[in-house]
Amino acid sequence: MSLDEFLSAAEAVEREGVATIASADSFEAIDAARNELLSRRSGRLTELMRQLPSIPEEERRRAGAAINRVKETLSAALDARRQEVGSRAPAAPALDLSMPARERWHGARHPVTLVIDEITAIFGELGFTVATGPEAELEWYNFGALNFPPDHPAMDMHDTLYLEGAGDGALLRTHTSPVQVRTLQTYDPPIRILAPGNVYRRDFFDASHAPMFAQIEGMAVDEGVSFVDLKATLTHFANRFFGEVPTRFRPSYFPFTEPSAEMDVACRICGGSGCASCKGTGWMEILGSGMMHPSVLEAAGLDSERYTGWAFGMGPARIAMLRYRIPDIRLLYDTDVRFLEQFAS
Does 157 score more than 60 pLDDT? Predict the structure, then answer.
């Protein structure tokens, strides 16, 4: 192709392209014109550029300049046309004040927090105060001071989360019982405390268990404290919290209490007929309890011949399941606001 033929073809692309762009009356038509003229694969200007090698070498500079001029002209025409079409576009619709407003989200306390607050208030009426302690504990406070034998299954790595690099015996506490020991080391009886907080165990995440969960433990230590006091206090708590509900105490075993007992209430999810949450028994265990073992008192520096005490521990999440008839503990941890806001206050 000669230079004159090339320049004539470039002028034709420019002339026809400008006319095509001017007739485009929508953004879609403008985009189609851009593809027809400037597409890198099949645009008319791209096809013309492929003819450059056929131009004599000494005349290619003029041919390239013509291509650049046509490209600039077409690009400017496309931009100008897009602005023209945009200026004619209909205005956005006015705000429709008759439409319902978007619901505002409000922060609220979690169902487990509500239960903890209520339990604390009930025991506060009985003279119990709140005590706290570290969640990263030492093995002695978590097990040794609580009369756990060295070969107890709970001390196995499969049950306890030990902390690497934090020193020998460092772990995430498996219960809030270490708070009891630390309190006994700090204050003289009479003592009545509640110890709420998070605890950690290598449990499977199923309908009634979670690897991290809240726990509340209570303790009363004084001269002459008996199992009668324990049972009367916990029965009072159950009646205050659940209303008039059937309860029962079952013999059990804990290394740090003797005698020991589990306390159950009638399952409020199934009404006692049996379900997955109560494992078909019709009863829901809410806490473990018992008279404090003399070894625990002595480990904390108290005279077990002079002082006696009782203790209990419960999971507020399980209590919340009973209170709100929640069939699966995992619902409490799924962070589904649609579910949680049903119980928020």
Answer: no
Q: Identify whether the C-beta of residue 328 lies closer than 8 Å to the C-beta of residue 207.
A: yes
Q: Are 312 and 318 in contact (CB under 8 A)?
A: no
Q: Are 258 and 293 in contact (CB under 8 A)?
A: yes
Whether the model clears a pTM of 0.70, i.e. scores above it, the answer is no
Q: DSSP H helical segments within 223-324, as ranges?
A: 227-242, 294-299, 316-324
Closest CA to 8 of 70, 58, 61, 50: 70
Give the closest residue to 33 by CA, choosing from 81, 70, 65, 87: 81
One-character DSSP codes across 125-177: TTT-EE----SEEEHHHHTGGGT--TT-GGGSTTTS-BPTTS-TTEEE-SSSH
SS3 content of the chain, % helix, strand, coil (to 5): 40, 20, 40
Prior bond of 190 cis (ω within 30°): yes
Sheet with 212-222: list strands edge to edge.
129-130, 191-200, 212-222, 308-314, 283-292, 257-266, 247-254
Span of 64-73, 141-150, 166-175, 271-280 with lowest mean pLDDT:
271-280
In sequence order, the β-bridge partners of residue 257 are 254, 292
Task: Indicate the domain borders of the chain.
Answer: 3-87, 111-340
Look at the domain 111-340 and name its fold.
Answer: BirA Bifunctional Protein; domain 2 (3.30.930)
Q: Please state, as a whole number, how many other Cβ atoms lie within 10 Å of the Cβ of residue 253.
A: 12
Rounded Cα gap, residues 332 and 301, in angstroms: 40
d(CA 218, CA 161): 24
Q: Between β-strands 212-222 and 191-200, what pairing exists: parallel, antiparallel or unpaired?
A: antiparallel
Q: Look at the block and give the residue holding tokens 């995430």.
A: 172
Output the CA–CA distances (angstroms, integers) from residue 197 to 9, 106, 118, 134, 255, in the order listed.
83, 25, 15, 9, 21
